[in-house]
Write a structure and sequence with these properties.
Layout: H1 5-9, H2 20-29, H3 31-38, H4 53-56, H5 78-89, E1 103-110, E2 122-128, E3 134-139, H6 148-164, H7 166-176, E4 194-199, H8 200-204, H9 220-233, E5 238-244, E6 260-266
Helix pairs in contact: 2-9
Length: about 270
Amino acid sequence: MDSSLKDLKGNSAWNTKRAMRDQCVELLCGLDQAIALTLPQVQMRTAKQGFQVASASRLTPEFFGQSKANPGLISPGTERLLEYALYERYLPGRDNQEAPWRYLVHRQVPLCNVISSDGWGEIDLLGVTHFGHPVVVELKKEKSEDTPLHALLEAACYAISLKANWGILYKEIVDNYSSHDLRLIPEEPKAIPLVIAAPELFWTNWNRWSTSGVGVPSDTQIAFGRLCAGFAERNMPVARVSLSHAGWDEKSPLSSDGVSINDVVSFFPGWPT
């Protein structure tokens, strides 16, 4: 493997249905090298840049897309509405037992330190486990053309960057949620769980026995599960979350009460303690 996880994430050839099984096998064989090549590509944010934890909670869907340069409202996409509804539902103070995180503390976490993102992008949702570990949540809408492998590559890249930037981000999260006992670990986390969250239809599209899963090679799910196990062995345990937003027609606002978790499938022995 002569490519980093970040390079693979940005390679469209690594986001196709028919190639996913073989690519999972290939990546598992060269996973250590791919991770090692990703580390020097991480961009370090400064304390002055910060991570905008406080501002994330103030931006509501009605204001997505507003700017002085382009006045007027831009209708937010399905994934962004789903993201905000989840973020609202699992804010600190609204404890839960159903999700693989205790709280969600940030959304759209920036990972680049320059105007050009250089492919780093943002973490969709940042969670905290009951043991105080950060959780990277990669969110996909039900009609997304991204493969689960591509979502995993995104989440893993972001976890590597998050670990390197943890000192600054930790302080910002603690300061913003000072009235809540997050039990957040101050030291660089040894393990960062990865969660791929999407509506059930997204996952059905990757079931080769379904009509929409035509073209998915046999044993693709097995190969993906083995790759997830490989990430778990390298302190990035993976979980798949199936979301429900029953009754939502995507034309009206999605409230935090309208989204729920149907199922959680773990590809690892257990969360870090």
